[in-house]
Amino acid sequence: MPTYTAPVKDMQFVLHDVLKVTETGIPGYDELEADFTSAVLEEAGKVSAEVLAPLNTVGDTEGCRLENGVVYTPTGFKEAFEAMKGGGWTALDCDPDYGGQGLPYLMGTAVGEMFVSANMAFNMYQGLTHGAYSAIHAHGSEAQKETYLPKMVSCDWTGTMNLTEPHAGTDLGIMRTKAEPQDDGSYKITGQKIFISAGDHDLAENVIHLVLAKAPGGGEGTKGISLFIVPKFLVNEDGSLGPRNSLSVGKIEEKMGIHGNSTCVMNYDGATGYLLGDLHKGMRAMFTMMNEARLGVGLQGYAQAEAAYQNAVAYAKDRLQGRDVTGVKNPEGNADPIIVHPDVRRNLMDQKSFVEGARAFTFWGAHLIDRSVRAGDDDAEGLISLLTPVIKGFLTDKGFEMAVNAQQVYGGHGYIEEWGMSQFARDARIAMIYEGANGIQALDLVGRKLAQDGGKHVMAFFEMVKSFIKENEGNEALKADFLEPLKAASKDLQAAGMYFMQNGMKNPNNALSGSYDFMHMMGHVCLGLMWARMAKAAQEALDGGAGDADFYKTKIATGRYYMARQLPATSMHLRRIETGAETVMALEAANF
């Protein structure tokens, strides 16, 4: 059975050596002293390793079941959920006014990585709840907040988001779910939603569904969509639970992975719902939840890769096959461990350099969210809006690739279920699809985000990279291995943006055909920037006589690998983009 150990030291390095959280000036960050964050992360690591990870295989093999209208989660999930609630983990970064602990979103992100690595399917129950909490917190009335948030913060009640219908995925404007207004101000919700993660289960006494539906008078397309709170059980004025609402689970989807999460078809048959936010402005309210979810899904991508990598390293050190071509390394055995072989090292270095760069990138993104929300920084809000499709799309694409790479280290054993590597790959695969398939993320990035606010935010990103390079150009330890590769990659990215500007207006397909490559280019540049920052921090620690010199030297060596072996991919992506739409669009549909 696979194991998991929380990478607390790596997380602390990003928080304190790279982001220097206590020096940022963001309200609440001054409390994030190293001793405090270490204590939180160490305890979360214990919960991850001792409570959640042992249930990962259980959830995968048992799955969820629907019996007589009741959804049951796998053995041990309910007890583990109670332990999470009892430890206050569901309330970590929630508003203290509703029972939360009020820690920054960054800390919730760091802890969330551990929980996802340990048991992705399990963590989705509280993860979806957090997103629904955020939407109600941002757009709900005071009465709605008082009614729902305390119970959702504690996860006595959980939450969902209901967007997709059998005929309407990304194109939500064609949804059919209807909301009919009632005399008492409520609405009757009728329709079917599919792919609803944590749609129903036995972990909480109520499930608060946030449902997109069309109310009269909204017109066609997404402009007519409103968002509604539709509880599984209606809530009485005194906060107690009333009768069952007119909604039901049609079935539990049979999926490739995340078997421990109940992905439901939800049927609404005149269910009572309450408008959340403004009428016909449901997409704005839902995007509060979706943007948070997209960063969380990007985190899922690299968190699964982290867990898979840890097990692949252990296997590579233990598995004896062949001899080192430069000389025997294990004279007492009949073969050397496979970690001596260069191609296994390449595979593991691909994984290690991606995961650590992705962690820094995601933590930086969470820090930007805190800067936006806690400090009211509009520039930070614009930058994280630009980066969100990159975090979601690039990190999940590469996270799945790295989970497969970890599986490959095992050879034939990686294909056998009892070793557990298959689950990491199967679970990671969904992250490329849900919360907006990655092709949609690329279209969002190129079609919307680059031009947002007149291109202000992408230009600010380019200036950030340029300024970092200029500020450190006298640092000989960084120059050749980090700054020069970063400069070259950034120039590739800018050249791609220029190509879109020059060719996209006369033929939009020239831009859209290159959008996926651009998303990956930008992902590589972001990780390149993160590795340059991490290398600088590690070198400063070494120069200052830091205690664990080997840790910092390893960081620099890992970053050097990424800059040399992964970052040059930007050149390939640029060449692809510059071929335009001609070859992509050459065939008639009938000729495929």
* Quaternary structure state of the chains depicted: single chain
Class from helix and strand fractions: alpha+beta
What's the shape?
globular
- Determine Rg (CA atoms, Å): 24 Å
Order of helices and strands: HHHEEHHHHEEEEEEEEEHHHHHHHHHHH
On the 0-100 scale, what is the average pLDDT?
96
Distance between the termini: 43 Å
Beta content comes to: 5-15%
Per DSSP, the total helix count is 18
Low-confidence stretches: none
Helix content: 40-55%
Reported for the largest beta sheet, the result is: 7 strands, mixed
**Strand segment tally:** 11
Topology overview:
Blueprint: H1 8-18, H2 34-52, H3 56-62, E1 65-67, E2 70-72, H4 77-86, H5 105-118, H6 120-139, H7 142-153, E3 157-162, E4 178-181, E5 187-196, E6 206-214, E7 225-231, E8 233-235, E9 241-244, E10 247-252, E11 264-276, H8 282-318, H9 342-375, H10 378-409, H11 421-429, H12 438-449, H13 456-471, H14 476-503, H15 508-512, H16 515-543, H17 549-565, H18 569-577
Helix pairs in contact: 1-2, 1-9, 2-5, 5-6, 5-8, 5-9, 6-7, 6-8, 8-9, 8-10, 8-11, 9-10, 9-16, 9-17, 10-11, 10-12, 10-13, 10-16, 12-16, 13-14, 14-16, 14-17, 14-18, 16-17, 16-18
